[in-house]
Amino acid sequence: MASTAKRWTALSDEELGRLLSLLKGADSVELKLTVPEGDYRSAAAALGMDPLQAQLRQVFFFDTPALTLNHAGVVVRARRIQGKGGDSVVKLRPVVPHQLPDSLRTSPNLVVEVDAMPGGSYVCSAALKAPGGIDDAREVAAGTRPIRKLFSKQQRAFYTEHAPQGVGLDDLSVLGPITLLKLKFSVAEYTRPLVAELWFYPDGSRILELSTKCPPSQAFQTAAEGRMLLTGRGVDLTGEQQTKTKTALQYFAKQLASAAS
User: Fold this and answer.
1) Structure confidence at residue 6 (pLDDT)
2) What three-state secondary structure class fits 152?
3) CA–CA separation, 34 vs 236, rounded Å?
4) Whole-angstrom Cα distance, residue 181 to residue 155?
């Protein structure tokens, strides 16, 4: 989230041009920072986060035991959200926004977003979303509902177009769920809302991610302001960056492999 502003200046002219092109075609930018595990309590205190305001969520991923979809840049997931219900997503990454068909690009269900992380890394994704019931994903995990029923007709078509040939939705395995807490909060001297997500993995490990979203035209300014906020409050910006989804997929794929052996 924060040191991204500093590292973007170190990109080559070619990479910077590519990033600007992606930003021009995106709907939004999400700036992310993984907090070192030993700093969770101090970061929460420094930013005034109240855990009692957090929302409980469960995330179910769907892939093959060999993570065939993940290797092809496709992410399929469903969520249960406390107090709201559920939803499902078929995500493709990386994408180039102007290469998406107009019929899809104009869909109100599609979000094209650039995720940017410390170190100057970034990726543009296209996520096709649909609402669902609070128990839909649980029923799939219990084997009483087929996976394809979690997804809309539009999502299924999007999946078929981009998934590896021969890998249907109902061929996938359930990876999860992961339980997490999501907290939306604000800090007095920062104009944008912040989000903290604490993911709890079954092996006892955790990932705490801070993030904020902004329009593409404000990405560099928002990143610079975020850096000033976090460094000013003593939050470490130099920790190893971890991807929540990748970590979850690798963990559960390993569990599937162990169960099959």
Assistant:
1) 47
2) coil
3) 9
4) 27
